[in-house]
């Protein structure tokens, strides 16, 4: 087969769904206009642990428009079958309204349904719940760790870290505390549920329509094919919508019990209760090094929070094992079950937390040894993956630093802390490595080429703002030899060919490869039709010599000889051609596959006011092939903004006396605003990685946030001489 | 939100009648509607006063200012007279909230703002301000953003307004109109410290309306400015702020008006700092020395000790220069 | 727990009639006094372009123009809008022709998920009308009432600059 010309892939196209978004026409979960829909509002527990002793619904039910109040007292029937196609964690997921136990503050304890939102909200505030409260434990620093390691993790050791530390020229022994963060997508989670007999349709904010479909089938004990989940637009998620949370069940339950379609949108406050979060960590890191800056040992002892009913895990071990050539490593992860809800992966899960620790420690080591922080990292570049001895598919971290150092002006830096001033501000620069896995999942797609020469391609994937609609259109357009305008990509429907969850940066690689496969098949089908058609100008041509461009099939090197799809299909009386293709990653890869980044930050610190302001940032990425450069740049810049939040602002605060989250709103849980963000620059290294994927991409969406917070923390040290081993870095730590 | 009846007052008389009957005035509504949605506020009747003729900004004969209660924050901030005479007010307003909120909220409503204390806003928590006698969850709870000055064992909530800090510094007065006629209250007496009755926040009588805020004339030239310290650069309440106005003549400070925000249960006038400044020549040494008096009497809580350091930093005085 | 008492025994919330103009169209509507402008638009009039991000004036996703000024529609009671003129994102384009700021948002990729976008654009229109576009710093400050969690701020500033100055 002749390689197709790449006109769309790699071109800086604007978002294909841009017009819908700037005109307010893109339909997010709560925007769908469903006939006869009524409104549900959840009532949350105001204790973190104990039992419900009574629920008085009389005042609520006396409100005009109220259709019902549902709680465990109604013993609503839910099956809660096991569900393997789920991002639930070992343990047992929260069952809604099945018993009187309260497991965390803000747990749903009842739902009110009314004909208007106003009535439902008011009635919900009138439901009186009484409790027998028990003392709760929500403080990671005080809770005892569970015996044994977290799920899918085990203590790791290579070499003898203790011995190597004992004999190291230089040792660092550091303790870190990382705050809990909430994803806080701008769209609050919402579900509209409608039953038609025993068939359930939900319009949901989900990063995994197939996962939500499976969960609802399991919870309600109905066949999978009776559930359809739709999620055409997602107002951001960053991981929070990777599993079907209790409110999804509640919406469907309420719709079943009331007998009307039900819309349930969580409030912003409720977004802090039941849709996951990045867990708090306590992390102890020890480093051993030679005087020349070769790492000899690294030990990681850390614990993080989880709920009492599920054992959360995230990928917090990989970086400690593979990022640098350290001969002696030990890792001892622990989880602390608390009276809290279950965390869920948040952008760059595990990697972000461990990168902060490792990358600020590397900076400390650089200062201790008097070696440039970039140079220190380069001295510890491994030739192969030190944990698996596999070759890297691609690893261009060196190049990231070289390109970044030049563009950022790293050489001009005076390395001494507190050496640079601008008026009242202390200026500092810092650097950190970012690195994230290349996750790959099975995906399928379907493509149909119509007689009018346009194509529709679809897969049950998602666009959380990452640009799936656009990037898949680009891949499909080139594979089909069509202009972007003549290709429509559809997603977000569980009835479409299955795709993995949109998490762990696997969508471009997995779904993109499936789209490529599907569209290749379709194009070849059309070529076959042409070369076997006596009436075609392409009759008898070797199919491998035919390419398609702008909807026209022609002989490679002889553009004059060919015909259009339209001509071909019309002559053959075909209204359409279609194909279904897939991508399945190989079971065991021979390669170690990761994306890499060099992050640079410049900060200004007013030491008297404890203020840190980011002045500029630069990220240089080795992310494989970039399908959609304009959108990839937005992703990278957005990752920096997320990282700035994690570094300087974000902190979910719990009152440990009763487990109450006290800043469960956007005025008190601070995320960056426009004024916090200066010009940010992103550079992707040209290249591709065909060992990682048939379409040459690695991963991107997580990678771009991983090294941001440590780069900023290192810059704060350079500016002030103050090493902060806590996130976020706030005024208290700097005064 | 609890149900309520709604009336629109066509004139002052109608408003006062409705107010006397127990109606709750609404102007910009940015605090009231927000708190009604949280069910912290549950008025039975709302009286819309936006049609009242309280929208004027007047430069008084002696060079003071009178700002109508219904002037929007954005209008006051942009007003040429305000900008020219009292930059500290413009700056305090423009560093508040967001452009959208400033387009809605009024000057009268701004000084009537209720605290952002998280326990006050959460009806499932103990709060003496919201529910007298229920206790103060903040006192031994999470209190990073709370007050260190003017607190009591019953309440440690800060007053959130920035403009009120400027008004306090400038020794403004509040003009009120009630069923019994007009009266004028010094700003310092208008907002009440919590004491044992944190539910009483202003020296307002039943049915009284704020008609304007008057800033007295101060000797010219006057340098003034507002400094606001917060975690993020915008759209956040102050951790600490300072409003400063200085009359400097012949290189000597003759008049100093200083107040701090974000640290007190009410905007906190700093007379000790003012005394340190008056009669002195401006210098970094002076700022530092004066600021050392800014936290006099502070009672820090578990999480907000850093506010003492912020106050004692030299910046509070520096911002005027 | 279903089937509250007979409807006439139920407690009703006071409502009012208001006449207002939305995107050029004059409407007379009976609203529950509690209904916010945002919920009126979204739940009663099918104008779901304005978004609910916090319902507390802390995010800006609900920004619309009322009598030409940008405001948070979540904190605006609909009952107070008698005689008002409201412009939402749905009323910004002239037929097929996008408002220059809408086009600038597309050109500069000033959004990702799109959820804050309606509010950003309406706020940007207000920002330009107010004349707060003198420098990138001024735009940043005066656009800070609109949170974008995807982090498109850099491009939002460029889009507002383009629309304000034809850059």
Automatic annotation (TrEMBL), chain A:
<dbReference type="InterPro" id="IPR036856">
    <property type="entry name" value="Ald_Oxase/Xan_DH_a/b_sf"/>
</dbReference>
<protein>
    <submittedName>
        <fullName>Xanthine dehydrogenase family protein molybdopterin-binding subunit</fullName>
    </submittedName>
</protein>
<keyword id="KW-0560">Oxidoreductase</keyword>
<dbReference type="Pfam" id="PF02738">
    <property type="entry name" value="MoCoBD_1"/>
</dbReference>
<dbReference type="InterPro" id="IPR000674">
    <property type="entry name" value="Ald_Oxase/Xan_DH_a/b"/>
</dbReference>
<dbReference type="InterPro" id="IPR046867">
    <property type="entry name" value="AldOxase/xan_DH_MoCoBD2"/>
</dbReference>
<dbReference type="Pfam" id="PF01315">
    <property type="entry name" value="Ald_Xan_dh_C"/>
</dbReference>
<dbReference type="GO" id="GO:0016491">
    <property type="term" value="F:oxidoreductase activity"/>
</dbReference>
<dbReference type="InterPro" id="IPR037165">
    <property type="entry name" value="AldOxase/xan_DH_Mopterin-bd_sf"/>
</dbReference>
<dbReference type="InterPro" id="IPR008274">
    <property type="entry name" value="AldOxase/xan_DH_MoCoBD1"/>
</dbReference>
<feature type="domain" description="Aldehyde oxidase/xanthine dehydrogenase a/b hammerhead">
    <location>
        <begin position="23"/>
        <end position="135"/>
    </location>
</feature>
<keyword id="KW-0500">Molybdenum</keyword>
<dbReference type="Pfam" id="PF20256">
    <property type="entry name" value="MoCoBD_2"/>
</dbReference>
<dbReference type="InterPro" id="IPR016208">
    <property type="entry name" value="Ald_Oxase/xanthine_DH-like"/>
</dbReference>
<dbReference type="GO" id="GO:0005506">
    <property type="term" value="F:iron ion binding"/>
</dbReference>
């Amino acid at each position: 087969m002749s390689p197709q010309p790449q006109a769309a892939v790699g071109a800086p196209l604007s978002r294909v769904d841009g017009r819908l978004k700037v005109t307010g026409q893109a339909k997010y979960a709560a925007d769908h206009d469903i006939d006869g829909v009524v409104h549900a509002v959840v009532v949350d527990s105001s204790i973190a642990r104990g039992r419900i002793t009574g629920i008085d619904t009389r005042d609520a039910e006396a409100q005009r428009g109220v259709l019902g109040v549902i709680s465990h007292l109604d013993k609503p029937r839910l099956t809660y079958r096991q569900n393997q196609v789920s991002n639930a964690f070992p343990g047992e997921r929260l069952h809604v309204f099945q018993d009187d136990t309260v497991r965390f503050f803000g747990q749903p304890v009842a739902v009110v349904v009314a004909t208007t939102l106003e009535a439902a909200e008011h009635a919900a505030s009138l439901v009186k719940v009484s409790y027998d409260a028990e003392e709760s434990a929500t403080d990671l620093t005080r809770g005892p760790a569970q015996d044994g390691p977290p799920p899918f993790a085990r203590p790791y050791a290579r070499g003898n870290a203790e011995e190597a530390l004992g004999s190291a020229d230089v040792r660092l022994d550091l303790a870190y505390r990382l705050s809990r963060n909430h994803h806080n997508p701008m769209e609050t989670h919402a579900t509209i549920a409608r039953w038609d007999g025993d068939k359930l349709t939900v319009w949901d904010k989900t990063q995994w329509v197939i996962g939500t479909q499976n969960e609802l089938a399991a919870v309600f004990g109905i066949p999978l094919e009776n559930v359809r989940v739709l999620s055409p637009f997602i107002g951001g998620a960053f991981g929070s919508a990777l599993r079907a949370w209790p409110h999804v069940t509640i919406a469907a339950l309420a719709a079943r019990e009331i007998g009307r379609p039900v819309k349930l949108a969580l409030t912003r406050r409720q977004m802090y209760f039941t849709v996951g979060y990045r867990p708090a960590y306590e992390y102890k890191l020890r480093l051993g090094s030679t005087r020349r800056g070769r790492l000899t040992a690294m030990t990681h002892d850390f614990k993080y929070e989880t709920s009492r009913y599920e054992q959360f895990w995230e990928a917090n071990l990989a970086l400690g094992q593979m990022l640098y050539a350290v001969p002696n490593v030990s890792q001892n992860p622990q989880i602390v079950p608390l009276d809290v809800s279950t965390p869920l992966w948040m952008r760059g899960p595990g990697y972000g937390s461990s990168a902060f620790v490792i990358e600020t420690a590397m900076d400390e080591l650089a200062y201790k040894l008097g070696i440039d922080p970039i140079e220190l990292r380069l001295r510890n570049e491994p030739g192969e993956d030190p944990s698996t001895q596999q070759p890297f598919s691609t690893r261009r971290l060196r190049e990231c630093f070289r390109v970044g150092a030049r563009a950022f002006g790293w050489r001009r830096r005076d390395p001494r802390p507190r050496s640079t001033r601008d008026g009242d501000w202390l200026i500092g620069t810092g650097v950190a490595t970012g690195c994230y896995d290349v996750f790959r999942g099975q995906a399928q797609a379907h493509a149909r080429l119509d007689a009018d020469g346009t194509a529709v391609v679809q897969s049950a994937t998602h666009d959380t703002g990452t640009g799936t609609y656009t990037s898949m259109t680009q891949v499909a357009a080139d594979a089909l030899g069509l202009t972007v305008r003549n290709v429509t990509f559809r997603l977000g429907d569980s009835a479409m060919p299955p795709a993995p969850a949109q998490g762990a940066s696997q969508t471009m690689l997995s779904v993109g490869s499936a789209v490529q496969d599907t569209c290749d098949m379709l194009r070849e089908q059309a070529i076959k039709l042409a070369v076997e058609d006596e009436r075609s100008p392409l009759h008898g041509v070797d199919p491998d010599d035919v390419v398609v461009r702008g909807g026209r099939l022609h002989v490679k090197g002889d553009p004059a000889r060919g015909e259009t799809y339209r001509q071909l299909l019309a002559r053959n009386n075909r209204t359409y051609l279609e194909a279904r293709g897939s991508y399945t990653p190989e079971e065991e890869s021979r390669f170690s596959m990761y994306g890499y980044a060099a992050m640079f930050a410049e900060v200004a610190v007013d030491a008297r006011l404890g203020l840190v302001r980011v002045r500029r940032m630069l990220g240089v990425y080795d992310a494989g092939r970039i399908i959609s450069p304009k959108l990839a740049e937005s992703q990278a810049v957005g990752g920096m903004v997320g990282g700035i939040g994690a570094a300087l602002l974000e902190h979910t605060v719990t009152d440990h006396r009763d487990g109450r989250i006290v800043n469960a709103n956007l005025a008190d849980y601070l995320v960056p605003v426009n004024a916090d963000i200066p010009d940010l620059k992103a550079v992707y290294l040209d290249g591709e990685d065909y060992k990682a994927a048939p379409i040459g991409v690695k991963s991107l969406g997580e990678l771009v946030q991983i090294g941001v917070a440590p780069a900023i923390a290192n810059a704060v040290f350079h500016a002030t001489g103050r090493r902060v081993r806590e996130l976020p870095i706030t005024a208290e730590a700097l005064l | 939100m609890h149900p309520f009846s709604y009336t629109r007052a066509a004139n002052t008389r109608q408003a006062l009648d409705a107010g006397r009957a127990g109606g709750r005035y609404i102007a910009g509504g940015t605090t009231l509607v927000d708190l009604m949605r949280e069910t912290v506020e549950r008025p039975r009747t709302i009286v819309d006063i936006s049609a009242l003729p309280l929208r004027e900004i007047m430069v008084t004969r002696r060079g003071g200012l009178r700002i109508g209660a219904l002037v929007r924050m954005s209008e006051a901030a942009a007003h040429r007279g305000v900008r020219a005479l009292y930059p500290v007010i413009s700056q305090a307003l423009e560093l508040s909230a967001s452009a959208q909120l400033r387009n809605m909220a009024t000057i009268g409503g701004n000084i009537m703002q209720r605290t952002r204390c998280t326990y006050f806003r959460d009806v499932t928590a103990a709060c003496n301000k919201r529910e007298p006698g229920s206790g103060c969850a903040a006192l031994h709870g999470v209190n990073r953003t709370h007050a260190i000055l003017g607190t009591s064992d019953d309440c440690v909530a800060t007053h959130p307004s920035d403009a009120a800090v400027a008004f306090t510094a400038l020794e403004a007065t509040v003009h009120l109109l009630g069923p019994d006629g007009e009266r004028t209250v010094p700003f310092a007496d208008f907002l009440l410290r919590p004491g044992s009755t944190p539910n009483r926040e202003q020296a307002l009588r039943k049915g009284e309306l704020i008609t304007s805020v008057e800033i007295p004339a101060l000797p010219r030239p006057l340098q003034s400015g507002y400094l606001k310290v917060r975690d993020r650069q915008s759209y956040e309440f102050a951790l600490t702020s300072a409003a400063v106005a200085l009359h400097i003549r012949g290189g000597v400070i003759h008049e100093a008006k200083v107040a701090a925000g974000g640290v007190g249960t009410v905007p906190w006038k700093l007379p000790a700092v003012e005394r340190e400044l008056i009669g002195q020549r401006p210098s970094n040494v002076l700022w530092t020395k004066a600021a050392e008096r800014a936290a006099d009497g502070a009672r820090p809580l578990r999480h907000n000790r850093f506010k003492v350091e912020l106050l004692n930093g030299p910046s509070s005085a520096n911002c005027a220069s | 727990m279903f089937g509250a008492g007979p409807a006439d025994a139920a407690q009703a919330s006071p409502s009012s009639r208001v006449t207002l103009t939305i995107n050029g169209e004059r409407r007379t509507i009976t609203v529950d006094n509690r209904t916010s402008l945002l919920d009126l638009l979204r739940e009663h009039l099918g104008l779901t372009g304005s978004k609910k991000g916090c319902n507390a004036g802390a995010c800006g996703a609900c920004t619309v123009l009322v009598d030409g000024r940008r405001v948070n529609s979540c904190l605006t009671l609909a009952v107070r809008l008698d005689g008002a003129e409201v412009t939402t994102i749905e009323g910004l384009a002239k037929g097929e022709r996008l408002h220059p700021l809408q086009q600038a948002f597309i050109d500069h990729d000033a959004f990702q998920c799109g959820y804050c976008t309606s509010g950003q654009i309406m706020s940007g229109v207000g920002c330009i009308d107010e004349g707060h576009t003198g420098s990138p710093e001024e735009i940043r400050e005066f656009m800070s009432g609109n949170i974008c969690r995807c982090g498109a701020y850099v491009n939002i500033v460029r889009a507002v600059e383009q629309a304000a100055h034809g850059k």
